[in-house]
Amino acid sequence: MSCYELYALKFAGPFSSSGAFMMWMKEWETVALRNYYFWCLKSPERTVLVDAGVSPLLARQRNLPGYLSPADMLKGLEVRAEAVSQVILTHLHWDHVDGASLFPHAEFFVQRSERDFWLGDDLARRPPFTFFLNDQTRAVCRSIEESGRLTMIDGERETMPGITCLPAPGHSVGHQAVVADTSRGRAILGSDCAHLFRNYEENWPSALIIDMVAWVRSLKTLKQRVSAPDLLFPGHDPLMSERYPEVAPGITRLA
Fold first, then answer.
1. Whole-prediction pTM value?
2. Most buried of the four, 95, 167, 208, 242, by CB within 10 Å?
3. Strand partners, 87
4. Taking Cα atoms as reference points, which of 179, 41, 159, 74 lies closest to residue 109?
5. Nearest Cα to 54, choosing from 21, 15, 20, 22?
6. Is 77 helix (H, G, I), strand (E, B) or coil?
7. Domain 5-253 has CATH 3.50.50.60
8. Domain boundaries of the chain, sorted by first residue
9. pLDDT tens across 228-241, in order?
10. Which residues contact 48 (CB under 8 A, 6 or more apart)?
């Protein structure tokens, strides 16, 4: 059985907002911080990325604080972006997919329902959905699809030994989590199913949920499938950079 080391790579941040952005309809007067991450799963046999971060072009346009190119960050794990062969996209929001062009030889895995909504449904071009994916990043998605490197998944699927894509909709139509075997048991990179550890701990969503019923069900599923609560990781919590050992600048080992 393949056993993976899990790494969080912080490519931008911190960002600040009202606490209600991270904890839905609560803590309006507080300030909450968040970072932007992608993740790396390493075993003796393979290296797999979870999400692709943001390209330098979009980072400049959005003036992202603390930005580092995901391609450059991977050097801290002795991984070359050109050698990356597999990237799992948890969903197609700009901060998770725009950096796909940095990995020119990778195969990308996404839930079919996620692809069909963002690339095939006219509703995705209407407010408020344009907050999550603009035409520039949509073109990045089209490019990897037209190159034959976008693989659609229908539901739960083991994409490679020890790694399973698990539907977890709610934050997005076809959002998926990534289950990975580690030395400590079955870990789950939940991505934006939760933005903070608190969302898991308090069973309370962020403000960025488009289907609340689906989210509640997804939360239950992730908690049932993970080996231990401390192996369930959110998408944007600064604690992933503070609570875990740093192995290179901006990179921490989660499991």
1. 0.98
2. 95
3. 49, 108
4. 159
5. 15
6. helix
7. no
8. 5-253
9. 999 999 999 999 99
10. 4, 40, 41, 86, 87, 88, 160, 163
